[in-house]
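Suppose a colleague, Dr. K., hands you the sequence of a protein chain of 371 amino acids and asks what its three-dimensional shape might be. Before reaching for any lab equipment, you can write down a predicted structure in token form. Begin with the sequence itself:
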Amino acid sequence: MTLRSHITGWGKYVPPNVLTNDDLTHMVDTSDEWIRTRTGIEERRIADDDETTSSMAIQAAQEALEVADLKPSDLDLIVVATVTPDHPFPATACLVQDTLGARGAAAFDISAGCTGFIYALTLAHHTLQSGAYENALVIGAETLSRITDWNDRSTCVLFGDGAGAVILQADEAEGGVLSTTLGTDGSGARLLYVPAGGSQIPSSHESVAERQHYLRMRGREVFRFAARIMPTATRDVLEKADLTLEDLKLIIPHQANQRIIDSSAKLLDLPSETIFSNLSAYGNTSAASIPIALCEAVEEGRIQRDDLVVCVGFGAGLTWGATAIRWSTPRPEAPPSSVEKFWHSLRYRYAAARSLLRRFVRWLLSLGVNE
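The predicted structure, expressed as tokens, is then:
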């Protein structure tokens, strides 16, 4: 018996708050033309004050579960890819697990920069393929606006917030995830990083005053790395699946910069319609960019059953990765009915009540210990 992992559900969430290029001209010395010609970005979504990485991840996860027609209690594994967790610990995945009511699921975060979703998908795929688990939830979610220096015009124009999620299920059917490839070059770690807040530079008055808790990037070096590694990773993952570029229906690249995407397409000698891009509307959402783009490609009918899709990305670390997927799940014919939505809502209310009860019991038990 050969188990394969199939994407059976997908969902996304982007904050309603839109920050346009024109808005940015009132914040830093820049222009709409400068941003569009150098990045391809026209606007991005920014999380409201009451939104967090976990709250956006939960919204995307709930949608993915509905598409897959799967109950949270059926989940065995939850992996959240993020560089902007709600807290240094516990893992954001634990918060997602509790809110969803996924009682039997193991949950953890993974930090691989913008490649995080590919890393998380790869780990979940191999876990399901081994037979250890049957159902996995993989999420990429970021609130990059919280680590963006809005005084730095070279970086603040690039980033946005959002979340995307997929459900992976083990099955013996043909298709699904065919191959994956991952890579790292730690010598480039300081090309894209947040200096302070870890054990090397703990948070202090000085680190805050020196603005060391914001993202820093050496753009030219990152651009050169990305333009080279994206085509390389794409060819590598296709070769592992014993396939070629001619077999491809669509590439879902990390949405970082339109010039990087265009350069990769040129080096691969692929027509522009083979490369999916929604960068203009969302900017760079790091680990969330590929799953958000994947969801939109499905919604727009760009991906159909038996299509070969490659998701490929690069990011801080420096990291890179790609996965080749033979799409095996049709898009649902109709959205959930009002009755189904009611039961979904009831399920999450029950999860919230259960969590509150467990906290109350834990508090009662602590009183006895204190005495």
